[in-house]
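>> received
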Amino acid sequence: MGDSLTGPCNHFFCVRVFGSSRRVVVSGGCETEQQNGMIGFPATGHKGVIGMAGTSGGRPSICPTLLYADAKAAIRQLTEAFGFTELSVYEGEDGSVLHAELAQGNGAVMVGSKGRGGVFDAAMKDAGTTGVYVVVDDVDAHHRRAVDHGAEILMPPTDQDYGSRDYMARDLEGNVWSFGTYAPEIPG
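>> returned
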């Protein structure tokens, strides 16, 4: 990953807090820096680690991404009623959920608040509440295949500030799909 990573965050806020579940309030900007194998956000002081496709560990290859009008209530229901384990929750200054990861068995879902801003939120505006993130090893080859088959590309392959490379597309029914190298780590 190099000595330092910096840049604006233009996709779903995809980092995982090191260790047990932790709530983090994000206060503007997403510049990152790497220290001691962790990713840090100087503006907020929060730190996390990144998982990538092709690494060892219990990492799901498909992570449904759900946006809710009341993401905190959804997280409560998913954890309390449906037995998900909260891995991480990142909140904006306004209390919106920028990104959360919940595990169930060897799978995970990513959750956020509708209207929180960013490319993914804009892409999902007219697509209902669910998008799917699929982990792939060769993003560019995957993108070429999608283009060759006429898929509507919403974001071309992009190197993200958190270390992933991914792109977004819309299927024939309007669902938003993201394909990339980011893979949340599932404990156990």
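>> Residues 1-50, 52-56 have pLDDT under 50 and may be disordered.
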